[in-house]
Design goal:
Blueprint lengths: L2 H26 L28 H11 L20 E3 L6 E3 H5 L4 E6 L4 H14 L7 E5 L4 H11 L5 E3 L4 H6 L7 E5 L5 E3 L9 H11 L1
Parallel strand pairs: 3-4, 4-5
Antiparallel strand pairs: 1-2, 3-6, 6-7
Helix pairs in contact: 2-5, 4-7
Length: about 220
């Protein structure tokens, strides 16, 4: 075999090996702590955001009674600051709206985005519930998006999740934060109103994961 032929053979072999290594790294990446596959199915891109006000009143009332979510937060009294200032969204567990910026300014808080059809969200919500019950935890507010509010409340009732929750029918909250197009994801909103995303948006496995993220970003 000529030297030129050997060189071409060596190049082809090197390229094949490099491709195999790249594929192996790609396959192992999620298990090594990288960002998991998006939890939003393709059909969700056109999924409408459901406003509790548009739901069947009887079904919504029954779902709210069954879920028994904690009351939505109210303004803290501190001047609202940061990108959430002036953003108001519907409360999921009861009638009314929440001025998110005014409610979260003044002390750190955790804001988690989820939906009833999001499988990783179902696994993560119990970790958030456990964290919220710990002494010294920061307030946790969940945001149900691209979802049927009755289905969201039913899931909360089944899982025993009582965290206060809002919805984001017009996407104003997500626009203010510049959120990614996947679920779940979480932000720590600092006392001065500045948000910090938990990145990469890997679902929390337990309350310790949540606590570590809060301490890192608060």
């Amino acid at each position: 075999m000529s030297r030129a032929g050997a060189t071409r053979s060596e190049i082809v072999s090197t390229v094949v090996v490099a491709l195999l290594v790249a594929l192996a790294v790609w396959a192992l990446w999620p298990s090594q702590g990288g960002t998991p596959d998006p939890a939003v199915p393709p059909a969700a891109a056109g999924r409408p955001d459901s406003d509790p006000a548009a739901a069947d009143p009887a079904a919504l009332a029954a779902a709210r009674a069954s879920a028994a979510l904690r009351p939505c937060p109210v303004p803290s009294g501190a001047p609202a600051a940061g990108p959430l200032a002036g953003v108001s969204v519907p409360c999921l567990g009861a009638d009314g709206t929440v001025d998110v910026g005014a409610a979260l300014t003044g002390s750190p808080a955790l804001v988690n985005f989820w939906a009833s059809w999001c499988v990783p969200c179902r696994d993560e919500l119990p970790a958030l519930q456990e964290y919220a019950g710990r002494p010294g935890s920061v307030p946790v507010l969940t945001v149900d998006v691209q979802d049927d509010p009755v289905a969201a409340l039913d899931l909360a009732a089944r899982l025993g999740i009582t965290l206060p929750a809002v919805t984001d029918p017009r996407g104003e909250l997500r626009a203010a934060l510049g959120t990614p197009p996947v679920l779940p994801f979480t932000y720590v909103v600092r006392a001065d109103g500045t948000p910090a995303m938990v990145d990469p948006p890997v679902p929390f496995r337990d309350a310790d994961d949540v606590a570590a993220a809060v301490e890192r970003l608060r």
